[in-house]
Amino acid sequence: MNAYKLLVVDDSALSRKLLEAAFETEGYVTLAARDGQEAMDILLTEAVDLIVTDILMPNVDGYYLCYKVRHHEKLRGIPIIIYTATYTSLSEEKIAEDMGADLFIRKPAPIHVLVEAVRKLLLEPSRPREVTKNPSISMEVMHQYSSDLVNKLEQRNIALEETRRNLEHTVQERTRELQRSNEELMASNEELQAINEELSTTNDKLVDATLVIHRQAETILVTERRLHEMEMQKSQHLLVKAYEIAKIGYWTYDTEADRAEWNDQTRKIFGVSPAYQPALQSYLALVYPDDQQRVKDDALRAITKGELFNVEHRIIRKDDGSLRWVHVRADFVQNENDARLMLGVIQDVSDRKTFEEVLLEYNQRYEILSRATNDAIWDRDIEHDAEVWNHGIETIFGYADRQISTATEWWKEKIHPEDFERVTLEIGQAFAQLRTNWISQYRYRCADGTYKYVLNRAYIIYQDERPVRMIGSMQDITGQKEFERSITAIARELSELIQHANAPIFGSDRNGYINEWNRVTEELTGYSKNEMLGKNIGLCIRDDHRQEFMLLLERVFKGSPLDNLQLPMMSKDQRDLIFLLNTTPRRNSEQQIMGVLMVGQNITELIEYRVNLEAKVQERTRELNEALRKEKELVEMKSRFVSIASHEFRTPLSTIALATGFLRKHREKISSDDFVKKLATIEKQVDHMTYLLDDILMIGKSDAGKIKTKYTPVDIETFFQQTAREVEESMRTHQVQIFIQCSVKSFAADEKLLRNILINLITNAIKFSPDQKSVMLRVTNSPDFLKVEVKDKGIGITPEDQQNIFSAFHRGANVGTIQGTGLGLSIVKKAVDLLAGQIHLSSQAGDGTSFTVTLPLRV
Fold this sequence. Notes:
Blueprint: E1 5-9, H1 13-25, E2 29-33, H2 36-43, E3 50-53, H3 62-70, E4 80-84, H4 90-99, E5 103-106, H5 111-123, H6 135-246, E6 248-254, E7 259-262, H7 264-270, H8 280-285, H9 289-305, E8 309-316, E9 323-334, E10 340-348, H10 350-373, E11 376-381, E12 386-389, H11 392-395, E13 403-404, H12 407-414, H13 417-432, E14 437-445, E15 451-463, E16 466-476, H14 478-500, E17 505-509, E18 514-517, H15 519-525, H16 529-532, H17 543-557, E19 562-570, E20 576-587, E21 593-602, H18 604-608, H19 617-665, H20 672-704, E22 712-715, H21 716-731, E23 735-741, E24 746-749, H22 751-767, E25 774-781, E26 785-792, H23 799-802, H24 824-834, E27 838-843, E28 849-856
Parallel strand pairs: 1-2, 1-3, 3-4, 4-5, 23-25
Antiparallel strand pairs: 6-7, 6-10, 8-9, 9-10, 11-12, 11-16, 12-13, 14-15, 15-16, 17-18, 17-21, 19-20, 20-21, 22-24, 25-26, 26-28, 27-28
Helix pairs in contact: 2-3, 4-6, 14-19, 14-20, 19-20, 20-24, 21-22, 22-24
């Protein structure tokens, strides 16, 4: 809703300013006019909601303004308040009512009464007063008002003339009396003159006698007084200078004479000229209307009771009408005439008030923000071993005490014993390296004795290379940790079950290319997993059964699993094998069939000796049943694994399917170069799927602590050039701009972990900058560290995602259709940690990303 617009009409500039200030403080928009004619000009061009007017003004007075508004077709509905003190009486109120005014408020009614009347008229508008449209009646009212006003002015002039004549008569009488008294005094003066001559002679002698004494005394007194005056002048000069520097005004106020004296700074604060005569009422007139009563009460209490006057309030500067805050302080002193004298100082504190308001708003925003994030925020004074927490210490961990006086002991009790040494070491390393940022994950004890996994980040403040303060936030990541452990355990369990199951397990995609080949299958066939992955499954099936088997697979691809399928196969050494298989479709997350998984049992011996081994049928049956039970368990584990990994396998499998379909359809026409390219595409996608599985296994091994670092010499130029080019050739979409500026040629590192870091960072940079043609790799070193920076100008990372970017399975909200597992940066972080390094992220959404890895320079 728009603010109401008020029109203030008064020929007094001061009255207009006061009314405008009062109304604008209440949120109204004000317009001002000096008389009724100027007001009418404004009303005809501006939309006004209410008029406040004085009566006696030049050109057009308040009554005639009412008359013109009420008889104007478009303006007659505007409420009008007459606010005046012009010889007012009940008859004037009656004239105002006749002219169409809604309210008549007689001064000295307080301004807040007028403000309240305006508010009521605007919120509950009454029906506009009906005024007569008979010009003769209206003019009669105006004539009556003019006659009354002229009569009053004439009566007042007559009274003033009578008073003047009385004063002249009194002055003449008093003059004659003074002349008579003067003649009598002159006669007495002749007698006194004779006596005075005798006294003069005697006095001359006394003067001569005391002259010498006076001269000596005067010399001493003048010297002492001069020294005292010089000291006083010096002190007074220093005091004045101090007041000027501090911009403090000082003043005195004689309470008996109601007279005040202000210095230049005081006048400057109030915006008044040197001619301004300050007194109590004139001082109060400059006080902001809402503060006037409070200031007046405090001033009168100080004057009547002799108490200290100490108050902060707002003023309206007289020169520009601006609003300022001042602090006034005064006390009573006794002057030479033993009168009551107040001595005070005044200072403009508007800047401090503004700062206090901003600080209050900042504190409120900080509290709201801390509650919105639901993080436990802490501030530790290292020197005094004290700590302060926000509400999160209670809402997350259940501790009511936010003020900790023994912070070291507090942390030692709360961090899990198995994590305490590691966390202490990490903090010590941060201090030793003068790092300003510290981050760690560990278990933290709650008030009920349970532990929660937390992510703790802190900013470290140093003084003379000594840590003095840490400010941090602690986030509960228990749910995330449990999810990571669950996913990793499932992936590890599925992989181990498939690989180590006591039954042959193998599978293929829809084109018959093998993508699963476990240990038992290796032992039975003699073909290793590396030999068979990516090969067609028909290569190891006997020729006379190959076509029949491929037809059966088509049924599985249509969603019909096959049980107890006898499959004749050939081993590497050309032995005949017969597997009894259960064949199940493999589906992706959208339930699309992407391949087949076969779990079975070697029944070669059973078939060869069936006639002569009837006694062993039951035993073999039990074995088969056990195998079937294991097969079902493996199928269930397979389904769980597929639900996690199939989404990421879908794209490479689709690519392989397209490539093999193309080869099958155009095998007669395709050139050898195109054939090689298609095979390269298939191999690339197989490598990609292997890379995805390696990522999952890498996470599992890292969490299990099974990765051991093996440091070997690494040639910096060769390693980084070759690895970057490998990624560049693999991706084939971007150029890697390489800048190696190192003063050393080699350093000691785990080459496998280092390669993992570099490949993941460059691959991510290329993948998440699809609209660019290049990414940058920069390698530099300092005496103690090797720094590797990978930078792109891609989609960037939002501030929200940056907090969890190194967490496993976390993907950014802005990645869109760009595929990925969310494991790459988690693997990078774990590899960097294993190499005792640090990784730093700098990114803005839409403006690219820069990752900087800092590793110890072991030569």
